[in-house]
Amino acid sequence: MTHTMLIAGSRVTIPGMDSRQQSGYQVLRLATELVPSTLALLGADAVSPFWAILFYFVLILFGIAQQVCSTVTCTSRIGK
To answer: What is the DSSP letter of 6?
Structure first.
């Protein structure tokens, strides 16, 4: 397994993985490193804390939406 560090995330490739079907890209670095460090460097005078709260709230909403979509897909396939 190889890890490639990119600007806004990392790519994990497994030997034998078909790169046309799975990219291996993980955006966890964006939420855990880049956004907090950028907000810390700019400071509260340049960027309102509202934007940090909004960013993480949107990520939470994306996570909830993804769970709802996967649940609906699974239950609709089971119901058939």
So the answer is: -
